[in-house]
Amino acid sequence: MLLTTSVGSLPKPDYLLAARGQARKGQITAAQLKELEERATREWIAKQEELGIDIIVDGEQYRGDMVAYFAEQLGGFKTSELVRSYGNRYYRKPIITGAITRPRPVTLEWWKFAQALTDRPVKGMLTGPYTIMDWSFNEYYPSRKAATLAIAKVVREEARDLEAAGAQYIQIDEPAISTRPEEMDLAIEALGIVTRGLRAKTITHICYGDFQAIGDKLERLPVDQIDLEFANRDFELLEFFKAKGKKFTKDVGLGVVDVHTHAIEPVEQAAANLRKALKVFGPDRIYVDPDCGLKTRSVDEAIDKLRVCVEAAKIVRAELGNGASKAPASRRRIAGAKRGK
Length: 341
Description:
This protein has a seven-stranded parallel beta sheet. Helix 6 runs parallel beside helix 7. The chain is α/β, with parallel strands linked by helices. It has one domain: TIM Barrel. The protein is built from eleven helices and ten strands.
């Protein structure tokens, strides 16, 4: 119970940031860049094990923007000029110019690489169809719905390949759905295409937006767990879920550290907020993690925030009389994946 994990992205070390710049300028080859991406992935897997994280992420060291990365791998997309995402961060907004296809798996080989490095389960990490559509220009499909459902079909193919390879947890990130409450039904339909028939535990991460406006439909999202930013909102969302009572039955990814601040939360503060959450959700329904991906923090800040998650969970587990978490063992021997390769 109170299993610990991370939402997905982790900061890239300085040597990898420099290498990405060199690759864009043609100063190093794609193969040389990949070697450094693998090195950074190894380091993050080892660090998460050292910290005691129960459910590992690969840290997405090979990705830039979460939507642009998928668009670059799928057919039917072209890339526009830089568009402002938030703050001083920019990305090359994809343009849908043809039928969406998946010529080859997008994340599968990276998942296999990461899982071969650890006995703990590694989450499969996908960007959801609604978010890919909403954060792209559509110049091909007749409507936003048509584009979203076309993307859902190829994301489903990726999810099924991850499950077939042994992924026990598959997360489909949908940060965009909370910003357009009027399209929540579309997001639910598309997510259902992705998750229908999967045996792996399914998760969606949602951040930003107006949760009060979409709250009545959260239960309808076709996933096992919904991961939300609690810390950044001072845990006000607990009151929302408390009001829903038994009507909300899904597991919850409980963000106990704020990824939007450099400050490192005291462990006791995170533990206190976990205790508050236990008044609303049972301990077997809570997964302890940061509010969102940690890629905007420094490496040291990310490590410290993950450590707070782990230590807070340990304290509260001990109070509940169960000091050890029980994450399911991963399938270590995955075809084609070798340690350190």
